[in-house]
Amino acid sequence: MISKPSLFERAKIAFDVFRNGFPRVSATSRNIIPMDDKEFSFIWPTWRVGQPQYKMIDIHGYINDGFNINSLIYSAIMFKARSSVIAKIRAYEGDPENPTLCKPDHPLAKLLTRPNPTQSWSEFQMRQMIFFNLTGDAFALLLKPKRDSFEGASFIGLDSSRVFIIPEKEKSGIMGYVYVPEGKTRMEGIPLLPEYVSHVKLPNPSDPLEGYGYGLSPLSPASRTASVDNAITDFIKVFFEKGAVVPGLLSTDQILSPETAAMLKERWKENYGGYHNWTDVGVMDKGTKYERIGMNFQEMSFAEQDERNEARICGVFGVPISILDTRSGIKASTYNNKENDRRMFWEDVMLPEIGLFENDYKYYLNDGNAFVKMDYSDVPALKRDIPKAVDAAYKLWSMGETRANAYAMVGLEPIGETPGADTSYLPINIMPIDSETEEIPTTNTGAASSEDEDRDKGKMKFRRSSKK
Fold first, then answer.
1. Closest by CA position to 371, among listed 358, 357, 354, 356
2. What is the DSSP pairing of strand 174-179 with strand 370-375?
3. Quick one: which of 102, 166, 297, 339 has the fewest CB in 10 Å?
C-alpha cells in the first residue's frame, strides 16, 4: 500500500513545481502528438482567459511625472510627434507597384483627410505617436456605418490607459478589447472586436501573452533617470524659493534657549532667505559663526548630471541630443552635425516606427482596390542632395558611362528624353598604359580645311596608339 504524502511534503512538491516547473516527460510516455499532426496554440492560464488584463505600468504616472513636468521628455516625444506628420499618408488604387492617387472624393481619401469629426489627420497621428512613446501602445477604433464601404466612416484614437486586452479562450490570440470610459469600472466597459481596433505597439519581451499583449513603454527603462532629473529640478526650485545658500549651521558661544534659537533662525531666513536677498550683507553678533555644511552647485556637479540625464533620456526615444538643442548638444554640435543627425534620426528611428503604423493602417484601411501608403517625399531630411548627385553623375559620365546609366546610378530622374543619353564618351587623351603614341603627320597641300583650322586654333594634337 502506497502512503499519501504529508501536508508538508505536498507543500514542498508544490513549491518545487512553482520554482522549477513540472518535471520533463518524454513525448512517448505522454502520447504527445507531433507538431506536424496538429495546430500549435498557446495555452493561457484560466485566470487570464476572458478577463481584461492589468497593465504593468502606471500610465498616469508616466503622463503626469514624465510628459507633463519633465521638459526633456516632453521635447523628445513632441519632436517625434511633429516629425511623424511631415510624412503624409495617402490613398492609392490600382497596382501597388505602380499606384495612382485616389480622387479627393473617394471615401478612403476623405477619411484620411478627416479621420473623425474633431481631428485632422495630423492631429490624430500626433496624438497616436504621443501615446505610442509614452505607453508603448497606440489604439484606434474604426467605426463603419456600412460594413463594405468607408462612406461615413470614422477613425478614433483611444486613450491607452482606458483600453484593456482580453485573451481568447478557445484559440491562441485575443478575444477583443474593452474600453473603460472615465468614471466607469472595467465591468461597465465597452467591448470592442479586434477587427475594428488598430493596436500599434513597441516590442515587449516580458509580455505574458507572447506578443498579443501590451507594448513596452520607452519610459520604463528611463523612469529612474527621469526621476533623478525631476528631483534635481525640484531641488533647484526649492533652493531659489527658500535658500540663501546651501544649508549651513549658525553657532554661538552662548547658551541659547529654544525660543531664542527659533527667533534667530526665523530672523536669518527673513533677512537672507531667498535669491532676492543674496546681495545683502550678513551681520552677526559677537561669538556667532556661520558654517556651511552642505555642497554648493559646483560640488554637486549639476552640469554633469544634466548631460548624463540628457543622453540617457534622449537615447531611449532615439532622438539625437543635438537636434533638441540640449546643453551637451549645443556644446558639441555644428550645422553639418545636425544635418547628419536629422538624416540618421529619420533613417534609424522614424522610418521603422512610422512603418509600424503604416502596416497596421494598410490592414484596417483597405477598401477593395484602394489602399493607404506613406509618402515621404516632403521629408526634408530624406530629400536627395541634388548638387552632390549631379556631381557624382558627371564623374561617372566622364569615366565612360552613358548619361542614362550615370543618372540611374545616382538616383536622378531626367525630365523627358535627351539626345545622346545612351552614348559613351571618353576624353581624347586617354590611352592604354601599354601603348606608345606618335603624332599624326599633317600635310599642307593648299588651303587648309575648316577641320584643320579648328585643330590649329585649339592647338590640339591627335594621337594614335600602336602595339609594342
1. 358
2. unpaired
3. 297
DSSP state at residue 196: G
Q: Which residue(s) pair with 143 in the sheet?
A: 154
* Cα atoms in the Cβ-side hemisphere of radius 13 Å centred on 337: 12
Spatial contact of 42 and 161, defined as CB atoms under 8 Å apart = no
CA–CA dist 130, 98 (Å, integer): 33
d(CA 239, CA 295): 12
Instruction: Give me the residue label for grid cell 537672507.
Output: 272
CB 94 within 8 A of CB 102: no
The one-letter code for the residue type at 294 is: G
Average pLDDT of the chain to the nearest whole number: 79
Distance CA 83, CA 435 (A): 59
10 Å Cβ neighbour count for 263? 12
Question: Residue 349 is placed in which grid cell?
Answer: 528611428
Cell of 170: 478557445
3 state SS of 442: coil
- pLDDT tens for residues 365-378? 988 789 999 999 88
Quote the CA–CA distance of 139 and 299 in Å, as a whole number.
47
Contact between 166 and 209 under an 8 Å Cβ cutoff? The reply is no
Q: Alpha helices of 333-465 — where are they, by DSSP H? A: 335-345, 351-364, 386-398, 403-410, 450-458
3-state secondary structure of 100: strand
- The residue among 377, 425, 428, 427 whose CA lies nearest residue 400 is 425
**pLDDT tens profile 109-152:** 999 999 999 999 999 999 999 999 999 999 999 999 888 889 99
Residue 239 vs residue 34, higher pLDDT: 239
Contact yes or no for 235/227 (Cβ under 8 A): no
Neighbouring C-beta atoms of residue 200, cutoff 10 Å: 21
Grid-cell match 585649339, residue found = 458
